[in-house]
Design goal:
265 residues, alpha/beta, Rossmann fold, 2 domains, 7 helices, globular
Amino acid sequence: MIRVGVLGALGRMGREVCKAVHDDPETVLVAAVDSEAAGETLALGDAPNGTIKVGEEIDMLSQAEVDCAIDFTHPSSVMDNVRWCVRHAVDIVVGTTGLKPQDYDEIRALIEEEGSESNVFIAPNFAIGAVLMMRFAAQASKFFPTIEIIELHHDGKADAPSGTALRTAHEISVERGEAPKPAVDSVEVVEGVRGGEVEGIHIHSVRLPGLVAHQEVILGGPGQSLTIRHDSYDRASFMPGVLLAVKQISHHPGLTVGLENLLNL
C-alpha cells in the first residue's frame, strides 16, 4: 500500500483526488492538507473509515509517514511544497499548473544539492486523452504551415494560458524543429485579440463557468484545416493518470515532466 498525502485537499481537484486515492486498492490516504482547512473533516465515502480530518500544515506529511504527496494547490504555493518534499525525501506528484522552465531547473538543482531520494513528477494534464491530443497535434504539425491553439477552462482557473497549451506548443516546436509560419500580418484593432504567442503559435484562453478543461489545436494549410480536440467533462477524467503517477513515480528518479513518460508513447 502506498501511503499518500494530498495538498490542496479542499479544492475541486483535491477533493476528487482524495476520493480516488481512498477508493484505490493500492493506495491509502493518510494525510489531507489545505491552507483553508480550519479542522474541516472531508467525506470520502460511506465506509466507517470514509472521512479524514484536514490539516493546515504540510508537516502533517511527516507525521503521517507519507510515501507520496499529490499537489493540486495554487501556482503561488506549489514550489514551496515541492521544496519541502524534496528536503524531506517525500515523492511528489504535481498537478498544479503555472510552473516555468526556471522552476524545473530549480527542482533539478535542489534534488542534486540535497542528495534527496525524493522524486518529482509534474504533468500539465493527467487526462490520457489530453496526452494523446498533444501527441497527435505534434505529429500532424509537420504537414501544416500554420497552427493555433484554443484552450477553454472553468472561470476559477488561476493561470492562463493553461499548462496543457504551453506543453502542446513546446511539443509541436520540438517535433517540427522550427516555429510554424505566422498567419498573414494583420492589425490588432483590439490589443491582444490574436492571443498570446508561444514558440510561434498563437494561444487563445477562454474562461467560463460550466467548463472543466478543453483544448483544440487547429492546423491550417492551403484549402484545408485539421482540428484535434480533447474535452474533459468531469474531473474524474484525470484520476487514472494521477493514480498511475503515484504508482510509478518511485521508478522515475529525479524530475519527470509529462504523463507520456509513463505511457510508453
